[in-house]
Amino acid sequence: MRAVVFHSPGLENLRLEDLPKPRPGPGEVLVRVKYVGVNPIDYAVVSGSYKASPMPHIPGCEFAGVVEEVGPGVSGPAPGTPVAVYNRLFCGACRQCLTGWTQLCEAGGIIGVATQGGMAEYAVVPSRNAEPVKADLRDAATLPIGALTAYNMALCASIAPGERVAVVGATGNVGTYAVQFAKIFGGEVYAVTRRKDAAAAMLRQLGAEVVTPDEARGLAPFDVVLDPTGAANWGLSMSLLGRGGRYVTAGALTGAEVSLDLRRVFGQQISVIGSTGGRRADFKTVVRLHEAGRIRAVIHAVYPLADAAKALAGLSSPARVGKILLEV
Ligand SMILES: [Zn+2]
């Protein structure tokens, strides 16, 4: 099969190679990959800041395709079923799994980081990670990270109906979904962006008021700030939060180190909340919400598999709106 592979870290080391087609073991399915979502985590894997295994490594943590073959003991999904792949490995038996927080599994890992990923014609995944989808597979490939990360951010923020929610980095692949889930959770949603182009019109279509950072400061305080982008927007996010406010982080593409005044945290009872991935059960919910037309994918560009390096570099493009995909 054709696969994107690196033998040592570095974007410049990505190669398209011909590898043996993998076979599913017990409890696993073989997925014929159709679309792969490109995410900051893939950049971290390829650049070596996340340790990938095994090596040489096939990146790709977010993908959708069709089940080609099932391993021993697998009752479903059956060959021919279109699926999107929940990307957290989970044991189902530890305390975190038993309380539903499968992305926090004590024996967990991420498909595409701790296993070979989806930037290939085929990928083997545990059958319980393969969620049947009715949607077109292009959209479905934006759900495992883009949509589920945003869903979990809204969940962790405990958004109450009518609360004012600011989404920082709203034009990104998590941000475009964060706007939509914050609406579904009942928030009055403000998308914070400097952009005035088609990106702003798209965010309005998703149900958000679109404001610049300065306008957002004028509208503060907000009850909730959702920020998937990281350190570059930390100061802005903190300036937007009011008393009892909740700040939720889910990524650090723009930097990871921030400073925090604890007097503000206790004095105004502010919560700084981490959110990673999402729960297996919530992935089912996200897929159903997409099928029902309650959320929609915003796709910026689709590249062929051979252009994986270009697609990864595109993550940092200021013109990006929503998701970059690879088509296999
Ligand atoms: Zn577990």
UniProtKB/TrEMBL annotation:
<dbReference type="InterPro" id="IPR013149">
    <property type="entry name" value="ADH-like_C"/>
</dbReference>
<dbReference type="InterPro" id="IPR052585">
    <property type="entry name" value="Lipid_raft_assoc_Zn_ADH"/>
</dbReference>
<dbReference type="GO" id="GO:0016491">
    <property type="term" value="F:oxidoreductase activity"/>
</dbReference>
<dbReference type="InterPro" id="IPR036291">
    <property type="entry name" value="NAD(P)-bd_dom_sf"/>
</dbReference>
<protein>
    <submittedName>
        <fullName>Alcohol dehydrogenase GroES domain protein</fullName>
    </submittedName>
</protein>
<dbReference type="Pfam" id="PF08240">
    <property type="entry name" value="ADH_N"/>
</dbReference>
<dbReference type="InterPro" id="IPR020843">
    <property type="entry name" value="ER"/>
</dbReference>
<feature type="domain" description="Enoyl reductase (ER)">
    <location>
        <begin position="10"/>
        <end position="326"/>
    </location>
</feature>
<dbReference type="InterPro" id="IPR011032">
    <property type="entry name" value="GroES-like_sf"/>
</dbReference>
<dbReference type="InterPro" id="IPR013154">
    <property type="entry name" value="ADH-like_N"/>
</dbReference>
<dbReference type="Pfam" id="PF00107">
    <property type="entry name" value="ADH_zinc_N"/>
</dbReference>
